Amino acid sequence: MPFYPPDDASISSETSEMFERDVNTLNRCFDDIERFVARIQSAALAQREIEQQNHRYRTANRRDKKNQQPPDPNGILFMRAQLPIESEFVDILKKFKLSFNLLAKLKNHIHEPNAPELLHFLFTPLSVILEACHWGLGRNIAPTVASPLLSLEARELMQNCLTSRESDVWMSLGEAWRTPP
């Protein structure tokens, strides 16, 4: 059978579709990360409110010598105070790694904000999530998140663009966040 090379228009169309798919995936990752951080912040606020209620309860009982009922541990506030479970933390950390890979892949095609600016943007929610891991799970689970591995391009982007503080955070994530495929 004779081989006919694809014309430039079909290659361009496929490239455009792949680019659009990657940008959409990156945007979905950003949306999921923002929702996850909002959920963590909501849990932290609910925890503070529970602590305040417990303090008011203890203070009122000491002062009034009455046996007031403690806050309901099955209420909505207690449900809101629950942090995500470990598998949800693992999933969101995988989305960070995917985002780093996609930023490196798209760096020559995205502008305003560009890839380094978006990379810097990601480290604020990443720090919040890492703190929540320590707070809620009692340990750093980031080193256990092996896949996806960061591409060589993603490592290079991070090595060239991260601030020293961001680089320290990156190094604290473990080998699985620095080992290329």
TrEMBL record:
InterPro entries: EPS8-like, EPS8_2nd. Signal peptide: none annotated. GO terms for biological process: regulation of Rho protein signal transduction; Rho protein signal transduction. Coiled coil: none annotated. Residues 21-180 form the EPS8 spectrin-like domain. GO terms for cellular component: plasma membrane. Residues 55-74 are annotated as: Disordered. Residues 55-65 have a biased composition (Basic residues). One of its GO terms (molecular function) is actin binding. It comes from the Eukaryota. This is NR LBD domain-containing protein. It comes from Caenorhabditis tropicalis. The lineage of its organism: Eukaryota, Metazoa, Ecdysozoa, Nematoda, Chromadorea.
